[in-house]
Amino acid sequence: MTDYSSTHQALLDTVPLREGARIESERVHYDEGGTALDGFLVADAAIDGPRPAVLVLHDWTGEQEYTRVRAEMLARLGLLAFAADLYGAGVRPTGDDAAAEAGTYYGDLPLLRRRVQAAYDVLASDPRVDPSRIVVIGYCFGGSASIEFARTGAALAGAVSFHGGLVTHEPADVESIRTPLLVLTGADDPVVPDEAVVAFEDELRQNPAIDWQIVLYSGAPHAFTLPEAPSWRPVADARSWRAFRAFLDEVLG
User: Could you give the 3-state DSSP secondary structure of residue 165?
Assistant: First the structure.
């Protein structure tokens, strides 16, 4: 078992540990283009055979305790979860450095897509995973990354953004999306104002075949799911998790 801060332990405990479950975790070292990466994989060892999996993409501070807790919450649901490292081993910035690091990838979306692909390949190649049932989710910067990965045409069961930036492309770049999208965003998020939501919806409409949902939560600012942050809104956090669980039930069967 992993030791977490009291705040994050309380978040983890919102998903009860099933009787007989054996939650085991490990660090996974991999690379992309010569950059060493260091992710966190967690699963219930009491489950036999291939199972659905979730790739968890971090916010702009990198792969840290929050994404590990979210991954373990998913493991408690019987899924195999991998908290990816999009920045590089040991790169865990804060403050202005985090904004600058994220900006590097927003300015080089092909690089961002490759970093997600590398993590996806780790997950899909795990013999405990059913590669036809992989969902990618992300928080803040990771939410943007999950949508960018969906734009590659990856054979996902679904892609989810929790309070992620909604990056639109000019010209529209949605023809390759072939996975359902769930976007969970705050109605009072200055990073994703109303006009950004509308622009993103208009881009998605360029491909009528896309199955997409956008849910806005009243009074919720950016990063509303982070219990350690002043932006945390417990009602919106709980509602978005329930919406995500319903989405999983739908796309994973």
Answer: coil
